Amino acid sequence: MKKTLLFSAAILALSACGGGDDHKSAATQSMDYLSEDSYAPRAMVHASGEMLERKAASPAPPIDQGATAPTGPMLAYTHNRSIESPAGDVEKVVNSHVSQCEKAGYSKCMVVNSNQNGIGEEWASANLHIRATPEWIDKFFKDLPDDLKASKSKITSASTSAQDLSTQIVDTDARLKAQLTLRDRLQALLTDRPSDLGDLIELERELSRVQSDIDANASVLASLRQRVAMSNLHMNYSAKSTVTSRSVWAPLADAFGNFFGNFASALGAVITTIANILPWLPVIGGLLWFGRWIYRKVWRKNKQEKALKTENVEKPSS
């Protein structure tokens, strides 16, 4: 009986994962597992044959099925905008955009990351990462030029990129449907064909593995759908440099401020050079003395001998 049940379970696994008419329309069917009651308690058969309930640890966030309906390419957008503002208004502009996102609510917009550097300084900068629905981002971009005029800010660069997640979503959805069918058939096998304790434990072990795969694929699919439903927006803010700003004269001020430090560094370099050369002075002096000795004893002596020979040769001729 044990071999028969295991053989039946293998047949069910092959038939469920092999695909059929139920899985050919994976791209056009909605998935019950990820509906609003997707994490409701599900039946589970214990080794004793008694039906138990499997409960989720925590409810999953609702997923917007309409935003990712497979009526066309499922694209995940990423937008980038760079904004230049007066130094004193960088913080104000950033806080204004954060406030707009928070007022829309987490279902439409959420702030993923926000940081500011040099608040109130000439070199102030900030970064803001927002994840929002395409509708909210479209409205935000439409109102952005008018909002920036009040603070004399402007957009210096803009870019948009998209990633097509259609294939990943359809494939993951198809795998999840096959695993759900396999799980239901394994549960039916446990219910309709009770046997000894060993066979039920083997089937429950297989059922537990299938359920683990279901949970993993459901998480991946939910993440992909969420990525399509919520676009990424990266905002980069920088302070606007003016002709009379302190940053223009900063190099001259730094030169005066670092005068004594630079002077000490140069003097230290001179002393270091002298210290490196000083041990070589005796060697250099010895080489000079030896060269002078060679000049006197050898080269000069040879020169004198040549002069004497020349004189001796010239005397008889005279």
Automatic annotation (TrEMBL):
The chain crosses the membrane at residues 277-295. The keyword Transmembrane helix applies. Residues 74-292 form the DUF4349 domain. It comes from the Bacteria. Residues 1-18 form the signal peptide. Residues 52-73 are annotated as: Disordered. Keywords: Membrane, Signal, Transmembrane, Transmembrane helix. It holds the Pfam family DUF4349. This is DUF4349 domain-containing protein. It comes from Hirschia litorea.
